[in-house]
């Protein structure tokens, strides 16, 4: 059993829904760095970050905005600051477990296309999930929110369809 501290501000998706118009691009990049690397105002914090999970040779296998938890902490300056950590490690497995038993776990828009083709989950498939989280941070919407999450969406993803990058996304 894994016990984590309570995340007072819920998950990233709900945070975006409530605050999207007030989140600066700087803050969006900061959130991505926290999720992936664990940097927080130039300090390294060993929480559940994707890099830490991968360093321990594990694969998350179900990374999406609902599994990114936000907590409010008074740190450094004493001001209110949100930091992120990855939750729901229930489907995580060692990276050495490369067998694909044709079972697909997760939320369709965040699942890497190769998984739908029968490949095993991998660190690279976790990175694909991060790409979808990045897209969600730029738009405030879940990927493919406007279509039904069914086999037809799976086929579209396999055919190369991806969410469109919005014009206001910095290059």
Automatic annotation (TrEMBL):
SUPFAM superfamilies: Protein kinase-like (PK-like). It holds the Pfam family PK_Tyr_Ser-Thr. Keywords: Kinase, Transferase. Residues 1-171 form the Protein kinase domain. One of its GO terms (molecular function) is protein serine/threonine kinase activity. Gene3D superfamilies: Transferase(Phosphotransferase) domain 1 (1.10.510.10). PROSITE patterns: PROTEIN_KINASE_DOM. This is Kinase-like domain-containing protein. It comes from Glomus cerebriforme. The lineage of its organism: Eukaryota, Fungi, Fungi incertae sedis, Mucoromycota, Glomeromycotina.
């Amino acid at each position: 059993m894994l016990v984590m501290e309570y995340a007072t501000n819920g998950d990233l998706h709900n945070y975006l829904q409530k605050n999207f118009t007030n989140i600066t691009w700087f803050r969006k990049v900061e959130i991505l760095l926290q999720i992936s690397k664990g940097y927080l105002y130039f300090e390294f914090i060993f929480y559940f970050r994707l890099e830490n999970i991968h360093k321990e040779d594990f694969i998350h296998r179900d990374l999406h905005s609902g599994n990114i938890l936000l907590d409010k902490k008074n740190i450094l300056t004493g001001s209110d600051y949100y930091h992120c950590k990855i939750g729901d490690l229930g489907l995580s497995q060692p990276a050495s477990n490369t067998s694909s038993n044709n079972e697909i776990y997760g939320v369709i828009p965040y699942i890497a296309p190769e998984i739908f083709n029968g490949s095993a989950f991998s660190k690279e498939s976790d990175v694909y999930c991060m790409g979808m989280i990045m897209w969600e941070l730029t738009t405030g919407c879940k990927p493919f929110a406007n279509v039904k999450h069914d086999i037809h969406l799976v086929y579209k993803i396999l055919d190369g369809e991806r969410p469109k990058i919005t014009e206001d996304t910095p290059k």
